[in-house]
Design a protein that fits this description.
heterodimer; A: 115 residues; mainly beta; seven-stranded mixed beta sheet; four-stranded antiparallel beta sheet; globular; B: 112 residues
Chain lengths: 115, 112
């Protein structure tokens, strides 16, 4: 149980285009999902907290107009990187919170490369 | 702000025990976690401990918490090559959307 999927697993796009990443909880409902960014050999950087039915809470320094988050249902949150640029290239990971101890179950990640 | 620190690298021989250490600064930490990340994958929750516990054991994994010193450790008994990965220590003050603060990760290398 507690499986989280992400789609796509990797994507290559041209500079200036937008990319949508989906995060799904497959066998449970997730009121709260998180979006992280991870640079090579570095820890996770929390980008935003996504709550079903309400606006996402963005961390300081994360542009909400550039990284659009929509948590439309209890099993799906999406992250759209708008007008992507090479500096947006990174590994994006989502997680869903489940359990009495706030455990997070992570998706497998999406490798974004912007040319 | 809150911070979680851990050593970046650990190398052990197959069959030995591995001990990964972590310190944190948030005195209101309620939950402490250990996650494992294999190359090119997301994180996998290994175990967690409540702040009112000193120890938790789960098969080959033993978590020790010294709340006074804000020190957390993960011991892996009989370490195998399949245990090679990055291990992240993390803490949270609550559930329901509370932020989880992650350490930078300890890369465990197991030599055959």
């Amino acid at each position: 149980g507690a499986v989280v999927s992400q789609h796509p697993s990797w994507v290559i796009c041209k500079s200036g285009t937008s990319v949508k990443i989906e995060c799904r909880s497959l066998d449970f409902q997730a009121t709260t999902m998180f979006w992280y960014r991870q640079f090579p050999k570095q820890s996770l950087m929390l980008m935003a907290t996504s709550n079903e039915g309400s606006k996402a809470t963005y961390e300081q320094g994360v542009e909400k107009d550039k990284f659009l988050i929509n948590h439309a249902s209890l099993t799906l949150s999406t992250l759209t990187v708008t007008s992507a640029h090479p500096e947006d290239s990174s590994f994006y990971i989502c997680s869903a919170e489940l359990g009495l101890a706030g455990e997070q179950f992570f998706g497998p990640g999406t490798r974004l490369t912007v040319l | 702000g809150e911070d979680v620190e851990q050593s970046l690298f650990l190398s052990v021989r197959e069959g030995d025990s591995s001990v990964i250490n972590c310190t944190y600064t948030d005195s209101s930490s309620t939950y402490l976690y250990w996650y494992k990340q294999e190359p090119g994958a997301g994180l996998q929750l290994l175990t967690y401990i409540f702040s009112n516990m000193d120890m938790k054991q789960d098969q080959r994994l033993t978590v020790l918490l010294n709340k006074k010193d804000k020190h957390l450790s993960l011991r892996i008994a009989d370490t195998q090559t399949g245990d090679s990965a990055i291990y992240f220590c993390a803490e949270s003050s609550g559930t329901g959307g509370f932020k989880t603060i992650f350490g930078a990760g300890t890369r465990l290398f197991v030599k055959a």
